[in-house]
Amino acid sequence: MQRCSLILLIGLSMLGSTASAEEELLVYSGRKPKFIQPVIDEFTRTTGIKVKLQSGNSSYLLNLLSMQHESTDVDVYISNDAGNLERGNSLELFQALPDRLVSSVPANLRGMNNHWVGLSGRSRVLVVNSQSPLANSISSIQDLAKPQLKNRLGLTNSENESFIAGVTVYMRSLGEQKMMQWLKAVKDNTGGKVYKKHSDIVDVVAKGEKDVGLVNHYYVYHYLKKHPSAPIKIILPDHKASDMGVAWNVSGVAISRYTKQTPAAVKFLEFLLSVKGQEMFSHVNLEYPVRNDVAVSKGIPERSSYHIANIKMADIGLYREQTIKMFHLISMP
């Protein structure tokens, strides 16, 4: 009997150590899997910690986390924009991140009180058909309101998080009244047709179905990798020092306030913010690393080469509802 008991205890002990070795994090991610899965796979290879990824709309996943509260199994939340991250912060869904973890990231690319941190940046650019007679007359997002672009403008729908974030930056720079006028004009210039995906906008501009589109920069570079002779060019709008600057947004990450695996979650964030993790965002996704000591991918304009709008990423969340209210007032599609 004693021998059987001893064997049983040893068996239970081994099971316990195996469970500990096979840590698994549940991550809610508002990013498309292709943009985050390669980094996750490398993290698991490096640390042995498994990651279960549940992808979906950033707003939907944040609302789900908010409803679940203490009952949630979610350890980490990733958003494709700063707006939802700061909203989650205001709902007290995240825990404060250690200073040592976020110190490599500039303060304007983090949340209020460091409850979330940016992972990768993107600039809002104009993709223009280089064969269009209007190609040389566009240099600012305000040019998108010109009547000459009637039916010739490609925009995502007003539910797109990057569109919401970009307009929030413009509003904070130019004022609400001017942005209301701009929105009414660009709505008219879409001809009532908007797009769900940035990649669709780049495609229709390349085909000449639209003259210009407003997109995140990396979609244009990915398209040109596949179609190097496509008649399109990128314009960094309002990029001079005397202008308002190019709108930026970040994807970012937070640790759930209710996680029971804080040490493993911290390791995950450490990897995402490490030089190796940042290089993957830069070279695989063609995004901007949030660390200044990691280079951008070849062919992407250096951050220092153009003026970026002086708006904190946290403001994208703080003024998000004001932007959505404007959309509702003019029935933005």
Give a structural overview.
- The chain has 333 residues and is α/β, with parallel strands linked by helices.
- It folds into two domains: 2-121 and 250-301, Periplasmic binding protein-like II (D-Maltodextrin-Binding Protein, domain 2, 3-Layer(aba) Sandwich), CATH 3.40.190.10; 122-247 and 319-329, 3-Layer(aba) Sandwich (D-Maltodextrin-Binding Protein, domain 2).
- Helix content is 43%, strand content 15%.
- Strands 1, 2, 3, 4, 5, 6, 7, 8 and 9 form a nine-stranded mixed sheet that branches.
- The longest helix has 20 residues, at 2-21.
- It is globular.
- 46% of the residues are buried.
- The model is unreliable at 1-21 (pLDDT under 50).
Query: Could you state the order of secondary-structure elements as H and E?
Result: HEHEHEHHEEHHHEHEEHHEHH
Coarse structural class: alpha/beta
Instruction: Note the main sheet.
Output: 9 strands, mixed
Tally the beta strands. Answer: 9
Helicity, as a percent range: 40-55%
**Assembly status:** single chain
At the first level of CATH, the class of the largest domain is Alpha Beta
Shape: globular
**So how many helices?**
13
Rg over CA atoms, rounded to whole Å, is 22 Å
Into which percentage range does the β-strand content fall?
A: 15-25%
CATH architectural grouping of the largest domain: 3-Layer(aba) Sandwich
Task: Give the CATH topology of the largest domain.
Answer: D-Maltodextrin-Binding Protein, domain 2
The CATH homology group name of the largest domain? Periplasmic binding protein-like II
Count of individual domains: 2
Which regions have little confidence, pLDDT < 50, spanning 5+ residues? 1-21
Distance between the termini: 74 Å
